[in-house]
Structures are given as structure tokens and as C-alpha cells.
């Protein structure tokens, strides 16, 4: 039996017997839920997290990710199945390493793979035969093969023979109570059959259905297409919103009616812009990569342009409302409801609320915000703190702007107590009390 097959068989046995040591690099919205799931079924999991505060919280079983059950985290930490560290010293002890680090954009909308590159170099220093490395971070097609593989093979070890490498894009939907890490179909792609087989086996230990594709590039493209699909359709309804504004039509009425069709349509809704790590960012990864092939993704670029325009449209609509009330922006008091990018979450990465608040501050507006999940934000070095939602905080501002439609907010009470409301999410559109006070996006 060759050394290659021995390494593969040994890793297979460790995975099946749950004796494999699993390293999860990056303990954020993707990494920590994944680490907990693996630890729950018996794997020894070591999380590598550059943020020492987060690492310490994990070791204290202090949960900071809403999608994780507090008791689940406490149990796996107490049982010694999950621990966190801030360094790569234990990489050589790990049998499987899962990379879950950020892949942001630069200021000119080009991919920033610095986190992936740093992590890959850290892994390479401790790389040994018989290890599996998977990348879960969303990226452009070619990252796994063209960025990670060469660094790992500089050690003299070969993919598919000495170590195994694959891409398995995360499909986390923060706040989704129905689809979790365990029951969301998992895509796996690798550029050699040994890597594909062992990666599939690994993910099947905790995920109900694993779907394979024939290359890492295909798996990478699956993910960016999924988020581009959403970005394009959101842009379509956002552009329809701009048109309905010109035509003095209620876009929500149009969409609600269109969505009664039982076939050939899928509900998407407009808003103040897109936020989070996926929709505002991932399509630009595909757009950037396409240029390498002398291909212009006009449709994707236009969608991004429309979505980025929405905070400015909300600003313009704010001006119109204030002008109709005879109030100059520099004299206005405005309360923003919700700064998280998505309802019922505390994540304000890339949130359109931040862009809007920044614009209104530049206009001289006296602005405050309320968000039950985000106690404070920083905009251009200025700290703002969430105010309690009382009768006074609703009644004093000339305008209340609903940006994030958190479920726990009493919108009937909000509309009744506020002077004027701009609703960018359509959450009040069916309220009888909203007829005279509310302007919809």
C-alpha cells in the first residue's frame, strides 16, 4: 500500500471515528456555528481567532453569535471539545483545517484576499501529510487553486497526494430559524478526486446533504452566483421603486399584486440599500474576475450601481418630506429606526443605515437612532448610541425613518406617536393608522 493511500485511509478513519482534530480559522458568523456543530458530534475542535476578545469569550462559553444556542456552546466548551487560540502553533496537530475568514473589497471594489493569504501562510508553516484544508470564505473562481494551492505546495507536499484541498462555500443566513448549518445543503468542490472524496466525507458527518461539483472553481462560482442572483433581483425592484416614485405610484401595491401570481415570479422587495458581507460584496468578486477573461458583466455592474444609489434616494426623499413640512435639514430632528443590515440581527456591516446617517449628518441634521440589537455605532470617528424608544423620542423628531424592520418594534405605537414617518421597508403599509402620517419608499 502506498504512502498516499495510507495517508488518505488514515484520515478517512479519523473522520469516521470522530477522532480527527478540526481547526476552524475565524470564529465569526460562519466559523463559530460550524465549530460548535463539529464539536457537538464528538470532534475535538480548535478555533483560531485573531481577535483575542473573541477567543477569550469562546473559552468562557460567552456566546456572541445569535444563531448559536447558549447551552450548546457551554456544553462543548465545558466538555473540552471546543477551545480557541489566537495563534497557529497547533496547526500541525490538526487533521482538518477550515478557513472562515473575511474576504472584503478594497475602496475601489477589487477583492481583498489578505486574510486568506495570511492564513494560508500560517497553515503552510505547520502543513504535514494527511491534512485536509477547506476554504469556506466567499471568493472569486480560482482562489483555492491559484492562491492557496501554490503556497501549500511550496512546502514540497502535493495536493491530492500528501494533503487535500477543497472549496466549500458557506451558506449562512444569520437569523434564519429554519435553515441552519446542519440542514442547509452543502456544496463541495475540489480539483482532484481524493480531495473531493475526503471533503465530502468530512462534511457529511454533520450536514444532512452534501452536493459535489467537479472543481473548486465551480464551487466558488456557485456561491458568488447565489448572491449575485439576489443582488440583481433586489436591484430590479429598487429600480422599479425609483420609477414608481417618478410616476407617483405605490411600489408596494404593485409588488404585492404581482406576487399573487402562482408561477413565474419570486418575491423580492425594495429597501434603503443592501448590507451585510454578501450581497454588497460578492457580485464584485465575479465582476472583477470576469475582466481577466475580457468579459464585461454589464448586468451585474448595473445592479450594484442601482443598489448603491438607494441611500442617496432615501436622503432625497427625506429632504422632500422635510421641505413639505417647512423644515430645513439643518433645523431638523430625525430618528432612524434600525441600523443593522438585516432585521432581528445586531450586525451593521455595510448597512445602508450607516451611509444614510453619514449623509444626513453632513447635511446638518440632528440625528439619533434606535436599534435594540446595536447599542452603539461609530461613523467617521463619531460615536452614536441607541436611544430608548419612548413616547418622547418618537414625538420630538419631525421625522422618523424606518431603515431596519426589527420584529420586536411596535409599529402601530410608533406610527401613532411619531409626527411623520418614512418607511423604507414597507412594514407599515397595511396599518390603518399609517394612511396620513407615513410615506412609503
Give the topology, please.
Blueprint: H1 3-16, E1 21-25, H2 31-40, E2 44-48, H3 52-59, H4 70-78, E3 82-85, E4 96-99, H5 114-126, E5 132-135, H6 143-153, E6 164-167, E7 186-189, H7 193-204, E8 210-213, H8 216-247, H9 251-258, H10 282-291, H11 298-324, E9 333-337, H12 352-362, E10 366-370, E11 376-379, E12 382-385, H13 391-395, E13 399-402, H14 411-417, E14 421-423, E15 438-440
Parallel strand pairs: 1-2, 1-4, 2-3, 4-5, 5-6, 7-8, 9-10, 9-13, 13-14, 14-15
Antiparallel strand pairs: 11-12
Helix pairs in contact: 1-7, 5-6, 8-10, 8-11, 11-12
Please trace the helix and strand order, writing H or E for each element.
HEHEHHEEHEHEEHEHHHHEHEEEHEHEE
Query: What is the makeup of the main sheet?
Result: 6 strands, parallel
Instruction: State mean pLDDT (0 to 100 scale).
Output: 93
Shape: elongated
Strand order of the largest sheet: 3-2-1-4-5-6
Helix content: 40-55%
Would you identify the CATH H-level superfamily of the largest domain? NAD(P)-binding Rossmann-like Domain
How many domain modules? 2
Question: What is the strand tally?
Answer: 15
Q: What is the number of helices?
A: 14
- Low-confidence runs of at least 5 consecutive residues: none
Helix/sheet category: alpha/beta
- Span from first to last CA? 68 Å
Our Rg estimate from Cα atoms comes to 24 Å
CATH topology of the largest domain: Rossmann fold
What is the CATH first-level class name of the largest domain? Alpha Beta
Which second-level CATH architecture of the largest domain applies? Answer: 3-Layer(aba) Sandwich
Q: Note the beta-strand portion.
A: 5-15%
Amino acid at each position: 500500500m502506498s504512502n498516499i493511500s495510507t495517508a488518505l485511509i488514515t484520515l478517512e478513519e479519523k473522520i469516521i471515528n470522530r477522532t480527527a482534530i478540526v481547526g476552524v480559522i475565524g470564529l465569526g458568523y460562519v466559523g463559530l456555528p460550524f465549530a460548535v456543530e463539529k464539536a457537538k458530534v464528538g470532534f475535538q475542535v480548535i478555533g483560531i481567532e485573531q481577535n483575542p476578545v473573541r477567543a477569550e469569550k469562546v473559552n468562557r462559553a460567552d456566546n456572541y453569535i445569535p444563531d448559536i444556542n447558549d447551552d450548546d456552546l457551554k456544553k462543548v466548551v465545558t466538555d473540552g471539545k471546543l477551545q480557541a487560540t489566537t495563534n497557529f502553533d497547533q496547526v500541525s496537530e490538526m487533521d482538518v483545517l477550515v478557513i472562515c475568514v473575511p474576504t472584503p473589497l478594497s475602496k475601489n471594489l477589487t477583492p481583498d484576499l489578505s486574510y486568506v493569504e495570511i492564513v494560508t501562510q500560517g497553515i503552510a508553516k505547520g502543513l504535514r501529510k494527511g491534512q485536509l484544508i477547506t476554504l469556506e470564505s466567499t471568493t472569486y473562481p480560482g482562489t483555492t487553486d491559484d492562491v492557496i494551492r501554490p503556497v501549500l505546495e511550496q512546502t514540497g507536499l502535493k495536493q491530492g497526494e500528501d494533503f487535500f484541498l477543497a472549496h466549500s462555500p458557506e451558506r449562512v443566513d444569520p437569523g434564519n430559524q429554519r435553515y441552519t448549518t446542519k440542514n442547509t445543503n452543502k456544496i463541495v468542490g475540489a480539483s482532484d478526486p481524493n480531495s473531493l472524496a475526503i471533503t465530502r466525507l468530512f462534511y457529511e458527518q454533520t450536514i444532512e446533504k452534501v452536493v459535489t461539483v467537479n472543481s473548486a472553481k465551480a464551487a466558488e462560482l456557485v456561491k458568488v452566483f447565489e448572491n449575485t442572483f439576489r443582488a440583481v433581483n433586489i436591484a430590479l425592484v429598487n429600480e422599479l421603486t425609483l420609477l414608481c416614485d417618478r410616476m407617483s405610484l405605490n411600489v408596494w401595491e404593485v409588488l404585492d399584486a404581482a406576487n399573487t401570481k402562482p408561477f413565474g415570479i419570486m418575491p423580492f422587495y425594495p429597501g434603503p440599500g443592501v448590507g451585510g458581507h454578501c450581497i454588497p460584496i460578492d457580485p464584485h468578486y465575479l465582476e472583477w474576475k470576469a475582466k481577466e477573461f475580457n468579459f464585461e458583466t454589464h448586468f451585474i455592474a448595473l445592479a450594484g450601481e442601482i443598489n448603491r444609489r438607494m441611500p442617496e434616494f432615501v436622503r432625497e426623499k427625506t429632504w422632500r418630506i422635510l421641505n413639505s413640512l417647512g423644515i430645513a435639514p439643518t433645523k431638523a430632528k430625525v430618528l432612524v429606526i434600525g441600523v443593522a443590515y438585516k432585521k432581528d440581527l445586531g450586525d451593521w456591516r455595510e448597512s445602508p443605515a450607516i451611509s444614510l446617517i453619514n449623509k444626513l449628518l453632513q447635511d446638518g441634521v440632528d440625528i439619533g437612532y434606535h436599534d435594540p440589537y446595536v447599542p452603539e455605532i461609530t461613523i467617521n470617528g463619531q460615536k452614536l448610541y441607541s436611544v430608548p424608544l419612548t413616547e418622547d423620542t418618537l414625538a420630538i423628531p419631525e421625522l422618523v425613518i424606518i431603515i431596519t424592520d426589527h420584529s420586536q418594534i411596535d409599529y402601530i405605537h410608533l406610527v401613532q406617536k411619531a409626527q411623520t414617518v418614512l418607511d423604507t421597508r414597507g412594514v407599515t403599509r397595511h396599518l390603518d393608522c399609517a394612511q396620513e402620517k407615513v410615506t412609503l419608499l
